[in-house]
Amino acid sequence: MDDPAFDVETDLQTQSILLAAANHDIPSLRNLLRNSSANVQDSETGFTPLHAAIAACEPDSEEDTQQSKGHTNGDTKSANEDAKPHEVEAANKTIKFLFENGAIWNDLDVNGETPGCIARRLGLKELYELCVDAGVRAELLLSRLDEYQPLGDAESDEESDEDDTKAEEEMEGIEVVDIGQEDVQGDESTENPAYLASTLTFDRDRLLDGSANGVMMEWETTLMQRSAELLLPTSGLRVLNIGHGMGIIDGIFQEKQPKSHHIIEAHPDVIKRLKEQGWHEKPGVVIHEGRWQDIVPGLVEKGELFDAIYFDTFAEEYKALREFFTEYVIGLLDPAGGSDGEGGRFGFFNGMGADRQVVYDVYNKIVEIDLFEAGFDTEWETISVPNLDEQGEWEGVRRKYWVLENYKLPTCSFIG
Ligand SMILES: C[S@@+](CC[C@H](N)C(=O)[O-])C[C@H]1O[C@@H](n2cnc3c(N)ncnc32)[C@H](O)[C@@H]1O
């Protein structure tokens, strides 16, 4: 039952918190948060206290705004000079205080912006980094908790209950962000089994699934070309590619005349096309039909070793990629392999979170940490991506899975 008096009071409380956040007034915030949450949202703007604290640094005089626009030419990424240093410092402290009090880093306002998006748009690098770091902490904790549940099962019931409560407490203020591999949030058609059962359409320059989601597109060729160069610098090496798609990277691998070239592919339509194109007759090619999850353990058991491994699947979450490099790459990559005998190399399509810069940045830090924990050093190369909208790439595609200016290309090798 709605109580209008209660609604008014809640709204007043929300407005007071947002105002204190916008004023960077930590003592008032401390008072207000004693019996309220750091994640209240304005019903009209969708602003949380984090949004308010960051947006308050926007230059507000017309002159300032003109200047800011002039500086940035519509791209506000370098507007930092326009914000007053003392104001940014106060915002910095407020944001830290809000995060310490459970503020969620990736809530969206009505414009579809997270607090980090606003900081980036206003060129507030320091505040942006605070949001990225909070995202990394939250997502790492969540993924560790995910692993931690089954471990809890082995403990006594009493201990498990205590641990569950602790875990729930720690989870307060943390929200999962979907950083799935080219994944569409909440869309069943892009879950792996549904995708594998859907009918694909092959066009000259794209591969679409049954719901018109882009599985692979020709604009990615530059990225595939560079990955292949870094993974297979010379001929005569052994390569494993997971996910054939349009066969772009496999075509480039073939040009490098590998000694052996294994391909794992799960989708029946891709397998059919791959056969029609005579891939099974190409030199050194071994095709494994099925999901990598079902094929890879057999390769490890057989003791197959590779100089290079590339991973680019579709409709799988980040968890799958992490499982692959944590559990299997170590058994498949030759530590004495590669063109110089200094160890094989592993690469993957780095497209997670690529529909929002802040999520991409969070994800890149997380993947680097996870790779390091799994025993890999990662080298990053930045490759600029043309404006895909201007090129009409997304026409007829359900959702843009890439909106960023730069691709960060990872190449991993064993630590030491
Ligand atoms: C993005 S495409 C790969 C594009 C490829 N890198 C290229 O250069 O054309 C992803 C491919 O992974 C396949 N795939 C998806 N899930 C898979 C799984 N679990 N195991 C093996 N292949 C999978 C898809 O059918 C699709 O062919």
TrEMBL record:
Any GO molecular function: protein arginine N5-methyltransferase activity
EC number: 2.1.1.-
Location in or out of the cell: Cytoplasm; Nucleus
Region (Disordered): 57-85, 150-171
Domain RMT2: 188-416
Keyword Cytoplasm: yes
InterPro entries the UniProt entry points to: Ankyrin_rpt-contain_sf, Arginine_N-MeTrfase_2, RMT2/GAMT_Mtase, RMT2_dom, SAM-dependent_MTases_sf
Record's compositionally biased regions (Basic and acidic residues): 72-85
Assigned GO CC terms: cytoplasm; nucleus
UniProt keyword DNA repair present: no
Signal sequence region: none
Entry's Gene Ontology BP terms: methylation
Function: S-adenosyl-L-methionine-dependent protein-arginine N-methyltransferase that methylates the delta-nitrogen atom of arginine residues to form N5-methylarginine (type IV) in target proteins. Monomethylates ribosomal protein L12.
Subunit structure comment from the entry: Monomer.
Similarity annotation: Belongs to the class I-like SAM-binding methyltransferase superfamily. RMT2 methyltransferase family.
Record protein name field: Arginine N-methyltransferase 2
